[in-house]
Amino acid sequence: MEEKRTEIASLGEFGLIDHLTRENETKNASTLLSIGDDAAVIDTFGKQMVISTDMLVEGVHFDLMYMPLKHLGYKAVIVNLSDIYAMNAEPTQITLSIAISNRFSVEALDEFYEGVNLACERYGVDLIGGDTTSSQKGLVISITAIGEVEENKFVTRSGAKEGDLICVTGDLGASYMGLLLLEREKKIYLENPGVQPDLENQKYVLERFMKPEAGKNMVHWMKENNLMPTSMIDISDGLSSEILHICKQSELGCVIYEDKLPIHEETKLNAQKFGIASTTAALNGGEDYELLFTISPTEFEKVKDCELLNIIGHMTNSSEGRKFLTNSNVKIDISAQGWKHI
Amino acid sequence: MEEKRTEIASLGEFGLIDHLTRENETKNASTLLSIGDDAAVIDTFGKQMVISTDMLVEGVHFDLMYMPLKHLGYKAVIVNLSDIYAMNAEPTQITLSIAISNRFSVEALDEFYEGVNLACERYGVDLIGGDTTSSQKGLVISITAIGEVEENKFVTRSGAKEGDLICVTGDLGASYMGLLLLEREKKIYLENPGVQPDLENQKYVLERFMKPEAGKNMVHWMKENNLMPTSMIDISDGLSSEILHICKQSELGCVIYEDKLPIHEETKLNAQKFGIASTTAALNGGEDYELLFTISPTEFEKVKDCELLNIIGHMTNSSEGRKFLTNSNVKIDISAQGWKHI
Fold it and tell me: Whole-angstrom Cα distance, residue B266 to residue B305?
């Protein structure tokens, strides 16, 4: 059966917006006015608001050859919620703008919005506005996430103290292995379209790339256990890059221990197949969307049995540098450069 | 002298962000934390927040052949602030994301940010966050504007009542004439690069296109004069399109009088040269960024001497339709379609 293809032009701008947001229900009492006016209105009930924004560009941040639109929609939201959790805040609303070329049908956009709506549903977030426009080439997604936090309970990158413990949630490097696998399969497919993809024993790393989750559980746990991190950041560019942000903004050094890095078995297995060190994937892979944070050593008792996190090192005086201690007991400098797409 | 060209890659992502935001100063006490962390933090002091977002795509919304980057930066901010004023709110913060190809130098981005900063300065708005990424082709700009409004003083599109007066600020159609002129000069230049542009007596319409302003004066005047509109929208797609939004969302009809439309002399002059009716430019031109709003007829005394606005019609029962009364006393249906880029 042929799939239905509705041209976007057949709905017009306003028809398209109505169509895409037809099932949009408000989840937060703070959302006073949502999509459909010049702006949305948010009531704040005396809390502070946290705002973050991200832009995703086809061919730079994602490849539609292996990224289904529904997953892309889900991930685009998660990436932004992750920043809100990294402030120790609770995400409440997002706005979503997309530029699309006419190669996309209404059905394709519906898939994308299915993913967006699923993420909003799971994280209790309202989609309150946006802009839908055309592009000459490719898909561009821009999301702004809004969150709330109790007065002065937000956590920045700059509050770490010497001696603080460095913690990380979940495991690292899996998303990068997922990406490598998908890139390999794409190459094979392009050369031999008949070959079926070999994606056995790779479910975990693929899911980590295709459908990451944001740090909700950790932030809720910290609230329940009355734990206030001294600094926090989410891992989008890789552990190395993020710990350097904390060091720089807190004016400190650090030591991270290779043997403490949480790495999933499947990540190790796949890293081996690709002939790269799983530690490299953990340090520089990126797109983990785990939380990296520091806590006072006096909080050790609170966290020592928490299964959501691992302690991977501690903050040092700035003069000691930013160091990584390998399993063979060699201290090396941590380096990272963020993106170099351009 | 050759202009300096610094490649974006020479700064890296974080260096580029530092460079572009180096003069960023906070203007609002509500801006607790600005650029440089996972998110910004805003204190709300018991007010309500208003949020709007817009995306601008090169080749769709702007043409760099005749739009200098500084003007583009200014206009991109204004377009968003206009939405905030249209809610009867005061803009306080923006986030800015851009995707850029490597054909842009750091100096080109500096020009763009000069315009962004100038608009922020003039409107008292803080730039609190953003994302800078690469694109495969062209420039994409996404801005989210945040504003504040006293409790339940925000104005939507849906509150107009039968008999309300329809008001519009400034004049209409000038921006469209500016666009037509620039399109013509571009065509001439492409055919004959030696020919100097003929832009005499077109200063006003060009400025209206290149450097529009948002509805700050009107919103401040309304506050000072204790005037609360019943509905309000900003004119981005043209008067026709916007009044239809108010009619639809307020479930009413309207009559607008051709002889009441505020049209600048220079707009009329240029419309004549192009052989189009200036009324058409006023109704469908778009990008005026004036405010269109309705007020109770009991407020007539308050506004009758206000030089910021003109009364151009009134709201009617839904059964009377959405009508335009021409100078020759013919009633025609108002129609509009928003964009049809795709």
Answer: 24
Measured between beta carbons, which residues in chain A are less than 8 angstroms from residue B240? none
Q: Averaged over B226-244, what is the pLDDT? A: 96
Location of structure tokens 């409790």: B151
Partner-chain residue, chosen from B60, B95, B137, that has the shortest CB–CB distance to A51: B95
What is the value of pTM for the model shown? 0.91
Per-residue pLDDT of B116-135, as tens digits, reads 999 999 999 999 988 888 88
Are the Cβ atoms of B38 and A234 closer than 8 angstroms? yes
Closest-CA distance, A61 to chain B, in angstroms, reads 9
Structure tokens belonging to residue A189 = 């497919």
Query: Which two structure tokens, joined as six digits, stand for B198?
Result: 């003929």
Residue in B51, B89, B93 nearest the CB of A128: B51
**Rg, chain A, Cα only:** 21
Q: Strand B140-149 vs strand B48-57: parallel, antiparallel, or unpaired?
A: antiparallel
Q: SS3 for A158-223, per residue? A: CCCCCCCEEEEECCCCHHHHHHHHHHHHHHHHHHCCCCCCCCCCCHHHHHHHHCCCCCHHHHHHHH
Taking only Cα atoms into account, the Rg of chain B, rounded to an integer number of angstroms, comes to 21
Q: Do B156 and A37 touch (CB under 8 A)?
A: yes
Q: Is the per-residue pLDDT at B253 higher than 50?
A: yes
State how far the Cα of B52 lies from the Cα of A45, in Å rounded to an integer: 20
**B49 and A60 in contact by Cβ < 8 A?**
no
| Nearest of B335, B48, B163 to residue A128 by alpha carbon | B48
Q: What local confidence, expressed as pLDDT, does residue A2 receive? A: 60
Domains of chain B: 11-149 (3.30.1330.10), 165-333 (3.90.650.10)
Residue B51 to residue A136, Cβ atoms within 8 A: no
Average pLDDT over residues A198-206: 83
